[in-house]
Amino acid sequence: MEVAPATGRLPSATDRMADLPEEIETADRVGLDVVGIGGHQRAASLECAPAVIPTAAAARTNNNLVENKVMKVVMILTSHDQLGDTGRKTGFWLEELAAPYYVFKEAGYEITLASPEGGQPPLDPKSNEPAFQTEDTRRFEADAEAREALANTVKLADISQADFDTVFYPGGHGPMWDLAESPVSAALIESFLAANKPVALVCHAPGVLRHVKTPNGRPLVEGKKVTGFTNSEEAAVGLTDVVPFLVEDELQAKGGIYSKGPDWGPYFVQDGLLITGQNPASSAGAARRLVEELAMSA
């Protein structure tokens, strides 16, 4: 993100939260088929015929396994650091990584960070300026474990949905150039959804959905409730003519049922397994909704 020439700055974390109600629109959740335990289960034995395990005991065992399972999330960051042809730097937006990171951490998740090129992804320098720092960004900067993970992201091509329960895409302007045009990223998102695993993207990252398809070849967002960085927010930071496309326009062009909240205020929507957030202030809420979705489907 960049400072708007007209205003001199983006709303700070404190400014944008003042007097803005949290408007959250949630679509009906997708029904899930739950595999239950039948009248009995059979346990194999080395020396005797299969023994019958009572239904109640089997259910308790199954519930314990679910409760003890450590959820695994992969967070996909950009590797792109050039803000068009302006000569300025871009990358991922720190709050959109840090806030969800600690939502997942506090939920007991195992977190993997990935990027197209692997290694240290570029940070949008604006996102770490004092006006945009938050408690979570400062916590991340002081967290040696988090900084080590960030310095050594896994290559996107080495990520398999089979190894994770969900995927989360932080934004920043960088993803509009690399992840939005990445067939590897598109295929990864498609594979998570095909496996009935939820996907979340915030701010500019919903633009990454532009080439993601349904199994029948239609745009993924067609007919789905979505949100993302608004045209007015892009205009406020003075980058309407710099970015390769506008997130709001692109989601609508692909048939998405686009909605938005007040500029810079927290707003996210869910449609089935797809969760999208509007801007940096929406990242923690979108992550919490993702945790709730996984808890419901466990």
Automatic annotation (TrEMBL):
Q: Name one GO cellular component term.
A: cytoplasm
Ranges in coiled-coil conformation? none
Alphabetized, the UniProt keywords read: Lyase, Stress response
This protein's source sits in the domain of life called Bacteria
Q: Which CDD domains match?
A: GATase1_Hsp31_like (cd03141)
Give a GO biological-process term: methylglyoxal catabolic process to D-lactate via S-lactoyl-glutathione
Q: Which residues form the DJ-1/PfpI domain?
A: 95-292
Q: Name one GO molecular function term.
A: glyoxalase III activity
Task: Supply the Pfam families for this chain.
Answer: DJ-1_PfpI
Q: Please give the SUPFAM superfamilies that the UniProt record associates with this protein.
A: Class I glutamine amidotransferase-like (SSF52317)
InterPro entries in the record, alphabetically?
Class_I_gatase-like (IPR029062), DJ-1/PfpI (IPR002818), Prot/Nucl_acid_deglycase (IPR050325)
Similarity comment: family membership: Belongs to the peptidase C56 family. HSP31-like subfamily.
Q: What is this protein called?
A: ThiJ/PfpI family protein
Native species: Lutibaculum baratangense AMV1
